[in-house]
Amino acid sequence: MHPLPVDQLLAIDRQHVWHPYAAMPNPLPIFPVKSAQGVYIEMEDGRTLVDGMSSWWTTIHGYNHPRLNQAARDQIDCMSHVMFGGLTHQPAVQLAQKLVELTPQPLQQVFFCDSGSVSVEVAMKMAIQYWYNLGKPAKHRFLTVRGGYHGDTFDAMSVCDPVNGMHHLFNKVLRQQYFADIPQIPVWGVWDDHDIASFEQHLAENHANIAAAIFEPVVQGAGGMRFYSPDYVRRARELCNQYDVLLILDEIATGFGRTGRYFACEHAGISPDILCIGKAMSGGFISLAATLTTPHISQVFSQGEAGVFMHGPTFMANPLACAVSLANIDILESYDWQSKIQVIEAQLKAELAPCRESSNVKDVRVLGAIGVVELHESVNMNEIQPQVVEHGVWLRPFGKLLYTMPPYIIEPDELRRITQAMVALTKSDG
What we know:
Layout: H1 6-16, E1 33-37, E2 40-43, E3 48-51, H2 54-57, H3 66-78, H4 90-102, E4 109-113, H5 116-133, E5 141-145, H6 154-158, E6 178-180, H7 197-206, E7 210-215, E8 219-220, E9 226-227, H8 230-242, E10 246-250, E11 274-277, E12 289-293, H9 295-298, H10 319-332, H11 337-352, E13 361-367, E14 370-375, H12 381-390, E15 393-394, E16 401-404, H13 412-426
Parallel strand pairs: 3-15, 5-6, 5-7, 7-10, 10-11
Antiparallel strand pairs: 1-2, 2-3, 4-12, 8-9, 11-12, 13-14, 14-16
Helix pairs in contact: 3-10, 4-10, 11-13
């Protein structure tokens, strides 16, 4: 491959490449990347940016990590892919074993997926077929909470926030689900059962039609970057048991240490019936996700009409992705990541506090390696994105949110560049 001149690259990009959440032709500024190393992104124009996004929550150990690169090289020399139907291989089996060890009991079965959205589709499909196999086909709808985000595919969209979410314009063609009120009690707030009253009411009135409840535990991600009480998750688990409804937890964004626990449901001390994971699992190296469930659920499938679970992605359990994911988890376990997250959290709390002095700011909140500044008004992406880059960092604001979830390997002076940029941006009219 011969690199194109930057002006030619941008011209072709604007004419032919459709970027996420963008129009064609794309009116938003695009910044060409040449390479990336550690927490730094090197741009084609020579500037170097500190990455405050971990490439949408994924690159927890930074870019170009030698151990991940070596794991990929070793696996490529063996095989980069082989179909998973009727075959298996070392990386998939060892990764499945590792995920079972890491996730809460009694999760024992691992279904590998291509992406986070697909893992949600698989979880919802799994819940529906589970009840169908038990002779309860009426249980095919889902209960979730407003303000959530679960992906861009169709069933995943159906449980995203129906009013203020990114997918509201599809509402008339999506399956209609049940939506409880957004949890209001903050992470360490005093619990009151009134906060989950809407969730309980939906279960009481509609449990005969509900296959599962699905939500993001403790942290709502792209739907609003809200942090809420683990007691909500604990009570939801109890209510699902009471009303004979499965519980699906979407930990695609929160898994692998982001909130200070390996999985966010650990803050509540509970386990779901089905768990969705992805993003940071492969360290941002290559797309991979998984849906985990329990023997109680999985054993029902051989008894049903189909006799199997009716799903099987072409690139399921891609050996290259599995091998890199194993190496990524090994890296995470090779150091005291919990202490590192605590240090990042403390620095984010201290250095983002001045944002509260700005009249543009509604709220500042931090949990683990997640720092959020909520503004009163939505940002103008045409204006704020170039300003972010001018500060020498990479952030991707959206809506009313300016936020960071840096790589775990970030050093204090590198993180300070991000927080100083965020403070400066909150004082801007952009």
